[in-house]
Specification:
Blueprint lengths: L3 E6 L2 E6 L19
Antiparallel strand pairs: 1-2
């Protein structure tokens, strides 16, 4: 059975499978900023 996760970033949702690579848009956060 494949492991999946649903993540949300930049107002969009993505379904991600184990060992996959996901490219998302850049977020307006400083280099040392914290994303919550």
């Amino acid at each position: 059975m494949a492991k999946i996760a649903i993540i949300e970033t930049g107002g969009k949702q993505y379904i991600v499978m184990q060992d996959s690579v996901l490219s998302v848009e850049r977020l307006p956060v400083e280099k040392s900023g914290k994303i919550t």
